[in-house]
Amino acid sequence: MDGQGLLKDEVIINSLILSNVLMIHFHHKDLSEKSTTDELVNKIKMIKNRDNNVMIIFIIRDAT
């Protein structure tokens, strides 16, 4: 599922039953923005609190 960062928490939680693997693509330039990284950390914590067996693959992309 590709949500372009716009998926609501309920959608993420409901889709976890479909797979135990989650891939997160993150832009390298966004790592310097505290609000963006805080939001990412909160999403990951929410997912892991819901199902600790979910494997999260974190991919940092650099478009340059």
Attribute tags:
64 residues, 2 strands, 2 helices, two-stranded parallel ribbon, globular
Strand-and-helix sequence, N→C?
A: HEHE
* Structural class estimated from helices and strands: alpha+beta
Please give the largest β-sheet.
2 strands, parallel
Sequence of strands across the biggest β-sheet: 1-2
Q: Mean of residue pLDDT?
A: 83
Inertia-based shape: globular
Number of DSSP strand runs: 2
pLDDT under 50 segments (min length 5)?
Answer: none
Rounded to an integer, what's the Rg over CA atoms?
Answer: 12 Å
Strand content: 15-25%
Number of helices: 2
Helix content: 25-40%
Cα-to-Cα separation, first versus last residue: 25 Å
Structure notes:
By secondary structure, the protein is of the alpha+beta class. It has helices at 9-15, 34-50; strands at residues 21-27, 55-61. The chain is built from 2 helices and 2 strands; from the N terminus they run αβαβ. The longest helix has 17 residues, at 34-50. It has a domain at 19-61. The chain is globular and about 35 Å long. The N and C termini lie far apart (25 Å). It is 38% helix and 22% strand.
